[in-house]
Amino acid sequence: MVTTMSNPTRSDACTLPINGTDVEVLTTDRGRGRIVLMLHGGAGPQSVTAFADLLATERPVRVITPTHPGFGGTGRPAEFSTIHDLAVLYVGLLEAMDLHDVIVVGNSIGGWIAAEMALLPSNRIASVVLVDAVGIEVPGHPVADFFSLTLTEVAELSYHDPSVFRLPPASEAQMAIMAGNRAALAVYGGAPSMSDPTLAERLIAVTVPTLVLWGESDRIVDPDYGRAFAAAIPGAQFESMPGTGHVPQVETPHLLAGYLRDLAEHHAVDAAVRG
How many CA atoms does the CB half-sphere of 8 hold within 13 Å? Predict the structure, then answer.
């Protein structure tokens, strides 16, 4: 356990039975206040770590960041292989931790997981935020086939200004983790499609408030793809983020934090009115 005076941080492993298989999920829990479950994308848990620290430090929120099994050097049971499996896992995690009124935030495949969570029978989710999510099929707006691209090429498509985010040389250990991340992503996402042809039509059943945030310079999944995502969800709000690509939590973290702050404050007002 690592703690600071202002922002306690705790890492735990929780084992949950999913479809007859025991699945271990590593979570990092930081801050206090309104609960945000933050789901990382294909870049792995390190892609949300700094942003989760920022959010928990600047705002009265408790940010929980799980590592999807198979990412970040963790194991993935062979029987555990779909985005739906991950959605069921994280609804189970909310139950195991007895969390209520949770804002679920997901980037890229994390957004796909969040969308699937919104379709599951759970009263623990207050709202969902999809950040440059993948998962649906939009004619004329395919998801970039990053399994055919190098990591440098993926970075070129992921940022408004890629020159600021040049990848430094990676160690052998880091390369092994990145290879494991890519392998897990291929399994969960059904490479190379990174989509479920049934998801768009199923999204009409989403009943929780949904905010769809999109980097206007995203070239992994373009903004029109994001607008189609929002249009498929009843009442969803779409917002374009200027000067931002596929990973706002890395490129424009304060801008993204502002949206989440406003959402958390809006929920707090609603809760006060209901009370």
Answer: 5
SS3 call for 186: helix
Cβ–Cβ contacts within 10 Å for residue 16, how many? 17
Question: CA 244, CA 116: separation in Å to the nearest integer?
Answer: 25
Asked if residues 29 and 11 have their Cβ atoms less than 8 Å apart, the reply is yes
71/40 Cα distance (integer angstroms): 10
pLDDT tens digits, one per residue of 21-61? 899 999 999 999 999 999 999 999 999 999 999 999 988 89
- The amino acid at residue 244 is T
In 3D, which of 74, 88, 75, 18 has the Cα closest to residue 45? 74
Residue 66 burial (10 A CB sphere; 0-12, 13-18, 19+): buried
- Does the predicted TM-score (pTM) go above 0.90? yes
DSSP of 86-143: HHHHHHHHHHHTT--SEEEEEETHHHHHHHHHHTSS-SSEEEEEEES--BS--TT-PP
